[in-house]
Specification:
Layout: E1 4-7, H1 12-23, E2 28-32, E3 42-44, H2 50-56, E4 62-65, H3 75-87, E5 92-96, H4 105-113, E6 118-123, H5 135-143, E7 145-148, E8 154-155, H6 160-172, E9 183-186, E10 192-193, H7 194-205, E11 210-213, H8 216-225, H9 230-244, H10 254-259, H11 266-272
Parallel strand pairs: 1-2, 1-4, 2-3, 4-5, 5-6, 6-9, 7-11
Antiparallel strand pairs: 8-10
């Protein structure tokens, strides 16, 4: 059996990747804590339980790796899985990394790069963060505002579906070219500041969205109140400082180069999801 294991298979990127792979006739196994009922190719998976790793990897030769959510130190729980995958002969390993610097993200990418058939995807900020239940999206929906310390700093926001499209191309390949690029920075077509994004959302909903400056302490408290662990909340606050300094202002053509289609613009995303910001 040749199959792709999709960890985080019910998440924003994973669920779309599963759909795209199955459309291509690729067997895609969904791995998550609570497998969806009625999916014969879904399996229970827990990063902290190595016993679930072996079962999930049975008959698998390719893996899409989504690190544990909100973890500031994913390497200790991911490394045993990587070792088991290598032992079982997994020939392609695609990591959903990040272009935005987070604690230990570089260490995890290094662990993946040490394995056969590695590929690292480094997407910029997700457009889906502007939707509930993400704290950013929830505040827009509830209060009509974005609280940030990023100022006019810009991010190359990308739709998670375009990340999935890129991963689908890489995971559908039957052969691996040793000369192919292995590290891919993924962005949308244009870098935008939070005021830019607020203006686009306002234009498509008819509802004003204001941008309010918040200091680091307030932002951290906001994230923690939304259920984000304290250490990860502090990491997100540090990201805002990088954005404000212009360090995340970058745009690439990687999605177009690999998939043949341009990534969705934020305006397209806002038009599609306008109703989500109008709910009471």
């Amino acid at each position: 059996m040749s199959a792709v294991l999709v960890t985080g298979g019910t998440g924003k990127t994973g669920s779309e990747l599963v759909r795209l792979l199955r459309e291509r006739g690729v067997v895609a196994r969904v791995a998550c804590r609570k497998p969806p009922a009625g999916d014969p190719d879904a399996v229970a998976f827990d990063w902290t339980d190595p016993a679930t790793h072996a079962r999930a990897l049975e008959g698998v030769d390719r893996v899409f790796l989504v690190p544990p959510v909100n973890s500031v130190d994913p390497v200790p729980v991911v490394a045993p899985f990587l070792a088991e995958a290598e032992r079982r002969g997994v020939r392609r390993l695609v990591l959903l990394g990040t272009a935005i610097v987070l604690p230990n993200s570089q260490e995890l990418a290094a662990e993946v790069r040490a394995r056969p058939g590695w590929v690292v995807l480094r997407p910029s900020g997700f457009m889906q963060n502007f939707l509930s239940p993400h704290p950013l999206g929830e505040r827009i929906r509830r209060d009509g505002e974005i609280r940030t310390s990023a100022g006019e700093g810009r991010i190359g926001w990308i739709d998670a579906r375009d990340i999935a499209s890129t991963a689908a191309v890489l995971l559908s390949c039957s052969d691996i070219d040793p000369a192919e690029p292995r590290d891919h920075l993924l962005t949308g077509p244009k870098a935008l500041s939070y005021p830019d994004a607020a203006a686009i959302i306002s234009a498509h909903t008819g509802r004003p969205v204001r941008v309010v400056h918040a200091d680091s302490r307030e932002l951290s408290a906001h994230y923690q109140a939304a259920g984000v662990p304290a250490a990860f909340a502090e990491a997100l606050v540090a990201v805002e400082a990088r954005v404000r300094a212009g360090r995340e202002d970058q745009v690439t053509t990687t999605v177009l180069d690999l998939t043949g289609h341009a990534p969705r613009s934020f305006a397209e995303f806002a038009q599609e999801h306008a109703g989500a910001w109008l709910a009471g």
